[in-house]
Amino acid sequence: MISRSSTIERLATANDLLLAPFGLTEVDLGKTLGIIGQRQIDDADLYFQYTRAEGWSLEEGIVKTGSFSIDQGVGVRAVTGEKTAFAYADDISAASLNDAAHTVRAISTAARSDRIKLPRRTVAKSRRLYDSLDPIGSLDSTAKVTLLERVEQMARAVDPRIVQVMAGLASEYDVVLVARLDGSLAADVRPLVRLSVTVIAEQNGRREVGSFGGGGRFGLSYFDDALVKSYVDEAVTAALTNLESRPAPAGEMTVVLGPGWPGVLLHEAVGHGLEGDFNRKGSSAFSGRIGQRVAAKGVTVLDDGTIPDRRGSLNVDDEGHATQRNVLIEDGILKGYIQDAMNARLMRVEPTGNARRESYAHIPMPRMTNTYMLGGDTDPREIVASIKKGLYATNFGGGQVDITSGKFVFSASEAFWVENGKIQYPVKGATIVGSGPESLKRITMIGNDMRLDSGVGVCGKEGQSVPVGVGQPTLRLDGLTVGGTG
């Protein structure tokens, strides 16, 4: 549900942390934007941010690191045409705001001939997808260390071959305030937590690694014993499976991708190509293809920033627009791109709530939130059983994509060789090579088990990192190229 009432509550929090301590009011923000607006500017905004972050790590049964940081500042931006001027400061004051305003308005040398009337300040509509809590304070330090110790104890108890355990716990409390040239004010209070576990298993002198974790926008009490045990079991299973792995065969073959985190391939190979800036510039393999078939029938891809408590979800994006559930591909037909305000204006469409920035020191750009493919109607066991000879990949490590060509390379961290519908043995060293647009057309079976990842995703673009989510059902793709070691 979109409303203004939840924004008012968050504006009060933002005012207490970002304006009042520095003697600023909403009137001062209007004056700063007024300075920018004295030139012929298409858009401008002020982005205030206060971030507290804490991290703990445990290795060999002892706490190896503990960190705590506080960062705050403001970014000031002016946009004219497709040009952006940006300045930022960690000094929040009327003087630094005015200096930044005079700096960025220099992007336009044309003064307005008419008298400026500042728009009346209005509260932007937003969502209420998560609680405005401080997760750092949701457990005391002793309880946080105890949680990590419990992770290690659980992992070592699963199997004697586990020789090393590393666990990490991260918490963040992020408050943002956005004031726009059109008079709108928006704020968000964003909690974020993540628990991760990595184990090393050893057998007959061979060592293998397994990792897992999860999190989202809630407090640390989310990590109860049952959930922690599930993370540990996943990590241990991965490590023990890899102990039995053989070199991966290479060549063109059928590939089945498991549900959940393997959606990271969809994120990289397809999602980035659907971001508005690449398509406005014509540099994406999907440029100019709205309304065309770009995937097999049955393939529907969404970017949805409105899923409660999810790592990639936001009440408002980093330009103050409410997030949305955006259908990008529907039954194989390209329906739209994800947009920030500048690219939407230049492409003559509406923003989609996808403007994101790493911090107040960065400019916003169109980015994904939670990107996933909807499920089909096939039992995933039937999909695996349909493989005559091929690869069943259940987990992925890193990957990269070339936006212009759409070509990608991904490494499978957990995969199995399948013959005549039966899993034969785990394999190691498999890389999947292909073209994002082409791979969408090679999908021949879609499982009924759509699943989102556990909440660990981080997306990089032009040097900026933001938290994201991915997901998909079990998928069969025919004729993919697999690079192997066997």
Explain the overall architecture.
It is a single chain. With 486 residues, the chain is an alpha+beta fold. 22% of the residues lie in helices and 40% in strands. It has helices at 5-19, 26-36, 94-104, 141-158, 225-243, 263-271, 276-280, 341-347, 380-385, 436-441, and strands spanning 2-3, 43-59, 62-80, 83-89, 122-123, 126-127, 162-180, 184-203, 206-216, 246-247, 251-257, 301-304, 325-330, 333-334, 355-356, 365-366, 370-373, 389-401, 407-419, 422-428, 431-435, 443-446, 451-452, 458-461, 464-467, 469-472, 475-483. The strands form six sheets. Strands 2, 3, 4, 5, 7, 8 and 9 form a seven-stranded mixed beta sheet that branches. A six-stranded mixed beta sheet has the order 14-13-12-17-26-23. It is globular. The model has no long low-confidence stretch (mean pLDDT 94).
Task: Write a brief structural summary.
By secondary structure, the protein is an alpha+beta fold. The protein contains ten helices and 27 strands.
Structural class by secondary-structure content: alpha+beta
> Which descriptor suits the 3D outline?
globular
Q: How far apart are the termini?
A: 53 Å
- Number-wise, the strands total 27
Number of helices: 10
β-sheet strand percentage: 35-45%
Helix content: 10-25%
Question: Would you identify the regions where 5 or more consecutive residues have pLDDT less than 50?
Answer: none
* Mean pLDDT value: 94
